[in-house]
Amino acid sequence: MALIGYARVSTTDQDLDGQRAKLELAGCSVIRSEKVSAASRAGRDELQTIIEFLRPGDELIVTRLDRLGRDTRDVLNIVHECEQRGASVTVLDPLVSTKGEMGQMVITVLGMVAQMERRFIKERQREGIQRAKERGVYKGGAARLDHDRIRKLKADGLGPSEIARAIGCSRMQVYRVLRSEL
């Protein structure tokens, strides 16, 4: 039986140290982490790797349920996949595990809350952008990637995977930048 930790933040400028420390305190022998949105499963390679290598009796541990996902169906699918492999899922805050019947129900409710929270965040963001546009002060989001550097690395012969490692982003982001240049 292994305790496997999963840490996730949404953007590259966020810090994973706090989550890692909590997962270490919980006794995780392996901790995988990534910097990617939990809006969907796309691009969450570390989570997929964990799920694929779970063995009966293993336990996937996250600090909060929203680290696993922001969509109720997605969270429930992840929990189901873990259980299909004979593993359980434990959330540290609040402490809930799928080992018991009540844990299943609580995780379902927490998943619904995470999804609702995501909707509220998006709505507040849209309202704020609209107000800023009305005042004439909206300039759009700051560019998160150096498009010129990506194009230069591509021109230098690097492939998307190598560029992604050099820049510190996902391959998909590299593809999007290169595709937008066509």
How would you describe what is shown here?
With 182 residues, the chain is of the alpha/beta class. The chain contains 8 helices and 5 strands. The protein has a 5-stranded mixed β-sheet, with helices on both faces. Helix 4 runs antiparallel to helix 5 and helix 7 crosses helix 8 (171-180). The N and C termini lie far apart (50 Å). The model has no long low-confidence stretch (mean pLDDT 87). Residues 2-136 form the Resolvase/invertase-type recombinase catalytic domain. The active site is at residue 10. Keywords: DNA integration, DNA recombination, DNA-binding.
Q: Main sheet: which strands, in order across?
A: 2-1-3-4-5
State the distance separating the first and last CA atoms: 50 Å
CATH class of the largest domain: Alpha Beta
What are the low-pLDDT stretches, counting only 5+ consecutive residues below 50?
none
Q: Please give the domain count.
A: 2
**Which structural class fits the helix and strand makeup?**
alpha/beta
Computed Rg: 19 Å
Instruction: Estimate percent helicity.
Output: 40-55%
Examine the coordinates and then state which fold CATH places here, giving the name of the CATH topology of the largest domain: Rossmann fold
Provide the CATH architecture of the largest domain. Answer: 3-Layer(aba) Sandwich
Oligomeric state? single chain
